[in-house]
Amino acid sequence: MAKKIEAIIREEKLDDVKDALRAIGIVGMNAFPVEGHGRQGGIVLAGRSGTYQIDMLPRIQLNIVLSDHNLDKTIRTIIESARTGTDAGDGLIFVYPVEDVVRIRTGEHGQEALTYEGDIDSRLAYYFAPPASRKPLPGEAGLEEPAGVEPAKPGGFFSRWGRR
Ligand SMILES: Nc1ncnc2c1ncn2[C@@H]1O[C@H](COP(=O)(O)OP(=O)(O)OP(=O)(O)O)[C@@H](O)[C@H]1O
Ligand SMILES: [Mg+2]
Question: N or C end of the chain, less CB within 10 A?
Answer without folding.
Answer: C
